[in-house]
């Protein structure tokens, strides 16, 4: 059985991470986003919160059902219960004496047809009073038990709660809506972060390739300088200068490689996979012009950041309804069935049913709570307006960045072409001994810096585009431009 379970787990693991563990297979941005949607910790956390709120909503929908409890109690008294006879002594003696005199008078009337004389009745009354008063207890008799156990089933069915149950259900529903929107927000932000990290890795791939070509060119120039020194055409100090430039270039190449490794680790964390997962990303940065979307109407409404602000308004309105409902009465149907009561000195019926009213007539906090809820509505509406303005600002700024960087990319593209041509011409002149290896090195260094500047501008352009699409709530829109 355990072997079968492990086989299932292995298949699941392979299916989850197959796109990134296949040797030699390039991992595209789209694959990264798919993996992150299932494995990113923040996404899982948001989904878990959504599931929790959904369970809470289901619980609120069942609040109309009756509540049935087992009720039991055990009571131990400091002393047994006592019957207080002294409080009724006078009444018992007086009543019993009068009853005796009346009974004797009734018997005499039945025999003779006449009433006893008043004197005879008084003598009978006084005699009875003396006898009964003499035998009446001078103490309060106590019951034998000091402890009692009772048990039963109690039911409580809400009939009317002043719209409290409806308001609680609406509140739970608003929390579900907020949690659902929060999943969208987390997914959106994770997609944006992964896109930015992917672009950084692609940028480093490009710079690494350019730097490697530069190292190869500097190595060839260094070897050529070595030949010129052997032939006593070039001074030895100029050969030493090529050694320094080559060492610096190799060091920069190693640093870029380390940055690539760090970039892969950071990407693994965002994907939610083991940090040592072998991600293969071979893409390089290629400039593609991106046309900003035509924004129509209230485009910000599709952004989950605006949606979450709107859900806060709904939540605040529901909170106000709940606050108002506290001043309305609650009506319950109640019932009880006794399961055990044999030890009680007094017996109650086996069951009873009734209606219970609960109405708070005064609570100094109710009005203030209502005012606080109304103020919360105003605050939520301001938050919604602030979210709208923030989205508009972000989209406008990102679009302007794209235009600015687009111009910079075009300018640096011309510059890198000129630098490459210049470097090639100087290299040809060196072969004809019209320039020195130092001139070649200087040209190559300028060429690589211009290349880095160009690709840095391209990276900035794509990042600005990612920010633009993210501000519209569509961070995955950039996938089609990153090939």
What would your notes on this structure say?
This protein is α+β, with helices and mostly antiparallel strands and 483 residues long. The protein contains 10 helices and 4 strands. It has helices at 2-21, 29-39, 41-61, 89-112, 118-135, 164-230, 236-271, 304-325, 364-431, 437-471, and strands at 67-76, 147-160, 330-340, 351-358. Strands 1-2-3-4 form a 4-stranded antiparallel sheet, with no helix packed on it. Helix 2 (29-39) crosses helix 6 and helix 6 packs antiparallel against helix 10. The longest helix is centred in the last third of the chain and has 68 residues, at 364-431. The radius of gyration is 46 Å and the shape is rod-shaped. The chain starts with a helix and ends in a 12-residue tail after the last helix.
Largest sheet: 4 strands, antiparallel
Span between termini: 46 Å
Class from helix and strand fractions: alpha+beta
Strand residue content = 5-15%
Q: Cα-atom Rg, whole angstroms?
A: 46 Å
Judging from the principal axes of the Cα atoms, what is the shape?
rod-shaped
Mean pLDDT: 81
Helicity level: 55-70%
N to C succession of SSEs:
HHHEHHEHHHEEHH
Count the DSSP helices. 10
Q: Main sheet: which strands, in order across?
A: 1-2-3-4
């Amino acid at each position: 059985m355990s072997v079968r379970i492990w086989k299932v787990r292995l298949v699941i693991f392979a299916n989850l991470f197959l796109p990134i563990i296949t040797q030699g297979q390039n991992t595209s941005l789209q694959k990264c986003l798919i993996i992150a949607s299932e494995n990113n910790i923040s996404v899982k956390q948001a989904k878990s919160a959504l599931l929790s709120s959904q369970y809470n909503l289901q619980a609120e929908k069942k609040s109309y059902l009756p509540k049935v409890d087992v009720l039991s109690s055990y009571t131990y008294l400091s002393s047994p219960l006592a019957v207080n006879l002294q409080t009724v002594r006078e009444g018992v003696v007086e009543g019993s004496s009068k009853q005796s005199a009346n009974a004797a008078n009734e018997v005499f009337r039945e025999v003779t047809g006449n009433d006893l004389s008043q004197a005879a009745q008084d003598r009978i009354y006084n005699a009875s009073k003396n006898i009964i008063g003499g035998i009446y207890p001078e103490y309060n008799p106590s019951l034998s038990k000091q402890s009692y156990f009772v048990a039963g089933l109690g039911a409580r069915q809400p009939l009317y709660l002043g719209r409290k149950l409806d308001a609680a259900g609406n509140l739970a529903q608003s929390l579900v809506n907020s949690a659902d929107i929060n999943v969208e927000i987390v997914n959106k932000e994770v997609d944006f972060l992964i896109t930015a990290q992917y672009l950084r890795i692609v940028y480093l791939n490009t710079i690494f390739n350019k730097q490697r070509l530069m190292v190869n060119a500097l190595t060839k120039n260094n070897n050529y300088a070595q030949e010129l020194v052997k032939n006593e055409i070039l001074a030895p100090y100029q050969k030493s200068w090529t050694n320094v430039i080559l060492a610096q270039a190799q060091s920069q190449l190693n640093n870029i490689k380390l940055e690539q490794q760090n970039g892969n680790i950071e990407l693994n964390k965002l994907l939610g996979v083991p940090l040592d997962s072998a991600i293969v990303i071979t893409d390089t940065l290629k400039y593609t012009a991106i046309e900003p979307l035509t924004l129509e109407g209230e485009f910000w409404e599709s952004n989950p950041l605006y949606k979450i602000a709107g859900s806060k308004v709904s939540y605040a309105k529901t909170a106000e309804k709940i606050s108002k409902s506290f001043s309305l009465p609650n009506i319950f149907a109640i019932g009880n069935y006794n399961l055990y009561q044999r030890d009680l000195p007094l017996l109650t019926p086996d069951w009873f049913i009734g209606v219970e009213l609960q109405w708070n007539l005064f609570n100094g906090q109710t009005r203030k709570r209502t005012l606080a809820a109304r103020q919360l509505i105003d605050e939520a509406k301001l938050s919604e307006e602030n979210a709208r303005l923030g989205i508009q600002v972000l989209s406008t700024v990102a679009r302007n960045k794209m235009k600015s960087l687009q111009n910079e990319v075009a300018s640096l593209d011309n510059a890198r072409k000129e630098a490459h041509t210049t470097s090639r011409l100087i290299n040809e002149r060196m072969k004809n001994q019209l320039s020195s290896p130092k001139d070649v090195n200087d040209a190559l260094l300028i060429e690589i810096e211009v290349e880095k500047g160009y690709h840095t501008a391209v990276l900035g352009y794509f990042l600005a585009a990612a920010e633009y699409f993210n501000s519209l709530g569509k961070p995955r829109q950039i996938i089609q431009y990153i090939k």
